[in-house]
Amino acid sequence: MPPLFALALLLSGPAAAFSPEALWEAWPSRRLVTTPAPCLRHAELVSLLRDLEARHRGRIGLEEVGRSVEDRPIQLLTLGSGPRRVLLWSQMHGDEPSATPALLDVAEHLLSGGSEAARILEATTVLLVPMLNPDGAERYARRNAQAIDINRDALALSTPEGRLLKSLRERLQPALGVNLHDQDRRTTVGETGVLATISLLAVAGDPEGTMSPGRARAKRACAAVARALSPYVPGGIARYDEDWNPRAFGDNLTAWGTPVVLIESGGPPPGRRREDLTRLNFVALLTMLSGLAVDDLATEDPAVYEGLPRNDTGGWADVLIEGGELWQPPGPLPYRADVAFDLDDPDSVGVACAAGSGPGPSLVREVGDGRLLSAARRIDATDRLVLPALAASVRGLAAREWMTGDALDAIGRLGVARLRWHVEPAGRDEAESLAAQLGRPGRPAISVAPEGTSPLFLEIAGPPRRPKAATLSAALDALTGVRWRSGRPLGERLRDLTGGGDDPPLAPDAPASLLLLRPQVAGATDPDRLEIEAVFLDGREPALEP
Ligand SMILES: [Zn+2]
After folding, report:
1. Boundary-marking domain end, from 237, 259, 281
2. Edge-to-edge, what's the strand order for the sheet holding 514-519?
């Protein structure tokens, strides 16, 4: 064989096929599960497992090892026949799905040939329990159908799912357990301001964190994962909280003799798809299995894991409006304050599950000095004013004639976040149903009120006219005619215009409904001289002009 050809063969050989780069590149075309993790339900999982078994009959074991509280089968997939047994389970928290498709993708990849795959299956027995908590997954909730957190049930063993996990450990005596979860998507890597896309833990088996040969293996496994994934999430890998948790499974499995690696999937780097979390799990798990098969991960340096910064929470916001002056009731004057808020969307929104729920609410996270916050989106509000969005009343059921989606979008673009619709009792149901039908993020929210409720200061009697300028006064003219005008300065009128009570509308946990205003000349506070630069209604910008 010519030497160059031999070299090429060597480079493309077994090790190269299981390099992190090769696995990362292979996943989009080789993965078995194309349903995004948050959309995968138990029924589809069962049929995928049956298909997998049918295609690889004789090389794979599929065993129903237990049933959930609601009688859903929980299955164990067994691959390989090697002496080193590895037990991997996912989604013991029903709303933490990212690794579940990865487990099936890993099985498919190992069964679809190649000498490195064969080596793994000779040296190890890979034991996979995808979706340990199918009842929670069905509800997309953390807990099982008994309202118990399975990961706090290792001692009490009140849940059938927890009893199953313990019995699997006793029966199979794995040399390593891998516990697959998702963490808060706003967790950061220490105080670096980078999202912790993956967090790792070589779980301790006692309060002192005693080292043992098994825990050393778990640390080497974490080091392998950190090394393999770091090119794809630069700076985005952290170490999970190491405190001994006496009720948790990872801690107790380690104490019972099976060292456990915890892998938590967090927020994908800004701009990247949520499905990358499944892809990262795929690369991580195959890298770990390959290292276990070759030499029990002997070449991995535990210091790589030990040197990872710890998880940090509270330092990340979805949107940060920084550098501006906040002007809101009850005070009459603007003051220097940043405003940070989150968009609390369920996971299913980002990947558009067919049956998924819609976007969630926004929540103001911080008002004040935001300099320590990192954010997915930063908005420079230097020399700008930040005001709470406007609120207005609409009177009578007859308003249904003009209250269309387009009219509401136009009202929203002019800065109105809330509409109070005063309706006589006979028309209430119809008004409620129209309000629900028209509701959507980035549109004014309509609340139906009894006819006699006192109206808000601003009243809207029909679809807004086109504003004559981009200023706040032009917007108010277009919404209400000239009836809003008075001689008083804006600071004294903010409570009227925003429909507020005694408390500041923009405060932690309130909806992020606000206006960003640009003074036409420095220091201007007159509505004629303040241009509306941006509008956020419950955290979303209204639809652009049609
Ligand atoms: Zn969890």
Report:
1. 259
2. 335-336, 325-326, 385-388, 514-519, 530-536
Does residue 366 share a domain with residue 253? no
* Average pLDDT by stretches of 10, the chain with 546 residues: 48 69 96 95 98 96 98 98 97 97 98 92 98 96 97 98 98 98 97 96 94 96 98 97 92 96 96 94 98 96 97 96 97 95 84 70 96 96 98 97 96 98 97 95 94 94 96 96 87 93 94 98 95 97 79
- Centre of ligand 1 to C-alpha 248, Å, is 10
**CA 140 – ligand 1 centroid, Å:** 12
With 0.85 as the threshold, say if the pTM is over it: yes
From 232, 259, 286, give the residue that closes a domain: 259
**CA geometry: angle at 86 spanning 299 and 73, to 5°?**
155
444 in a structural domain? yes
Overall domain count for the chain: 2
Q: Is residue 82 part of a domain?
A: yes
Domain housing 453: 362-371+380-536
193: left (phi over 0), alpha (psi -120 to 50) or beta: left
Give the containing element (helix H, strand E) for 454. Answer: none
Distance 360 CA to ligand 1 centre (A): 21
